[in-house]
User: Which sequence fits this backbone?
């Protein structure tokens, strides 16, 4: 399948983002709590998918959680503790860019967790998620899939683009040699944690734009009818002419130099 170009992608994304805005209003009005977990290999497209969902939503309502590696104190806590702190309050949305499933993926494959810790996690995770769902949280879990050939292209793009190089880490380099080990770890994770109350959904992200559209459509379809009547907004006209900015103490800095013809 040929790659979806930017302009048709943006045209297809716009109505989905309008639906997402209505969904966010529904969450706010009804007091629901929505948690969406994004997991997948490095470069799979988790950040781009989260941005496509959140970029038109109120950042005070929709939070993205991308936690760094745990501190020494956090390593001594109950494993789920630092994630619980980021669960949403009523009317809010939490998007996890990686989540508690780090233990079943990168920590297992890279040797950051013992076999006993991983085994205990695979038993505890479904119980933890049952508690969340029983408490009324709407929990959606997505795995973004990506073939190694496509992963290598994206790694190469990051090495060549100074604006994306920050995304590379020593873990990424090591992970390139462990593609099959990550596959085995993922399959064990799915077998243990794909439950009736918190199922996994796998989305093909070899084409990231199509993947985002697919994921967003599925997310919206998994929620009940989120149509909420929008209150009528009374926005009267100004009583006089629009005022201009006036400064007496300080002045704005000079405008950025724009070449003639670049301003439209």
Assistant:
């Amino acid at each position: 399948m040929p790659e979806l170009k930017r302009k048709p992608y943006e045209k297809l994304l716009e109505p989905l983002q309008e639906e997402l805005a209505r969904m966010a209003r529904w969450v706010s009005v009804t007091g629901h709590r929505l948690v969406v977990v994004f997991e997948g290999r490095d470069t799979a497209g988790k950040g781009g998918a989260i941005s496509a969902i959140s970029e038109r939503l109120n950042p005070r309502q929709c939070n993205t959680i991308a936690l760094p590696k745990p501190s020494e104190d956090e390593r001594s806590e109950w494993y789920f503790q630092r994630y619980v702190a980021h669960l949403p309050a009523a009317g809010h949305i939490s998007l996890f860019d990686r989540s508690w499933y780090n233990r079943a993926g990168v920590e297992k494959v890279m040797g950051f967790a013992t076999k006993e810790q991983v085994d205990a996690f695979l038993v505890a995770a479904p119980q933890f998620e049952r508690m969340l769902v029983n408490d009324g949280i709407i929990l959606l879990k997505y795995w973004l899939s990506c073939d190694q050939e496509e992963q290598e292209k994206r790694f190469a793009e990051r090495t060549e683009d100074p604006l994306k190089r920050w995304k590379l880490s020593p873990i990424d380099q090591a992970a390139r040699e462990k593609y099959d080990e990550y596959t085995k770890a993922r399959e064990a994770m799915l077998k243990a944690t794909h439950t009736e109350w918190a199922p996994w959904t796998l989305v093909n992200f070899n084409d990231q734009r199509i993947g985002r559209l697919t994921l967003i459509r599925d997310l919206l379809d998994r929620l009940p009818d989120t149509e909420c009547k929008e209150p009528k907004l009374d926005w009267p006209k100004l009583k006089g002419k629009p005022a201009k900015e006036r400064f007496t103490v300080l002045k704005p800095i000079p405008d950025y130099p724009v070449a003639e013809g670049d301003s439209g």
Notes: The mean pLDDT is 94. The chain has one domain: 6-222. The chain is about 45% helix and 10% strand. The two ends are 36 Å apart (CA to CA).
